[in-house]
């Protein structure tokens, strides 16, 4: 993958199926390394809803040879940091350290991913932490409204469930069931190790190979359930100071040929301060402090959502303006000057977002795990640059003209208020 004019990315696939990708950034004095596991919320049976996120917490609680405090001390005593996150389709664990402490970071990540202890007392304490996280989410209406939107957009589908699980599934999750879920899914062929910074590729491969003490095997196949029609309206009545709205549609899968065109359209619609929604909803009318659109993409489907937070008495006006902007987009498309500005923003922000070892590592792991390839920055810029007015018009018609629109609302309303 490396060569003149391309990113210095190297890739090795071990006999176990584990993939190791690195990007050398010799001008830095840091290294970021992450384990990206191809398992997330969509892989969980109903009775173990939240298991992937539970594992995200548990793996840093300790291994057979290290307690949680020892893991934290080893990383933080050298100025490093560590974290993890769970999505619907994958889970990631990562560490960033000064470059001369790469071996320690690789050893810790290898041990927490392959050999977690699952000590009963630590599991119980982390169970309580996750229940508190769910309560914190439940006290945050602008988080809840996005989960309601996903639930309405993908009813009776794993993509419509929260990765946090529910109080019932987290409370009832047994240690052995969580450990078995880990053993079934945390297989080398289901993992990508990504590292970026001041490093040598073979050094990383040797460190990872030395820490690999688990046999490979096939992870359970991912079931692809059918998609039911979306629910067009879902509300949750709460005595909030603001009404929280998400309005949107199902959209394109991550590998759809029109994905770059949709990213450009989304940027023009609500991706920044110069976007149509920001200018019309906030700057001209003062209807909201926060208003934006976003795109998410999965294996086989995706979504575009528009969020706005406004006073309850102005919720209908805000929604009418958002609908009007979508209707105008469908009717008139994007003029050349808006297309050019959106493309310029995406190209520039892509370059600016990749100036750290952490951001480069995230790009490697996420891209390899979800698409089995890592395009160079030049290739990404070329794809964005190639989007034409005709491409934008086509994707607007595909996504916004032909797809049912879904509305989720959290605030002091009844469903009939938006019927």
What do these coordinates show?
By secondary structure, the protein is α+β, with helices and mostly antiparallel strands. It folds into 2 domains: 9-210, Cytochrome Bc1 Complex, Chain A, domain 1; 233-418, Cytochrome Bc1 Complex, Chain A, domain 1, CATH 3.30.830.10. The chain is built from 15 helices and 11 strands. The protein has helices at residues 51-58, 68-76, 102-114, 120-138, 141-153, 167-172, 175-185, 201-210, 259-270, 276-284, 315-332, 336-352, 357-371, 377-385, 389-401; strands at residues 9-13, 19-24, 30-37, 81-86, 91-98, 191-197, 233-237, 243-251, 291-297, 302-310, 406-411. Strands 1-2-6-3-5-4 form a 6-stranded mixed β-sheet, with helices on both faces. It has a 5-stranded mixed β-sheet with strand order 7-11-8-10-9, sandwiched between helices. Strand 4 (81-86) and strand 5 form a beta hairpin. Helix 9 (259-270) packs across helix 12 and helix 11 crosses helix 15. The chain is globular, with a radius of gyration of 23 Å. Mean pLDDT is 95; it is low at 1-6.
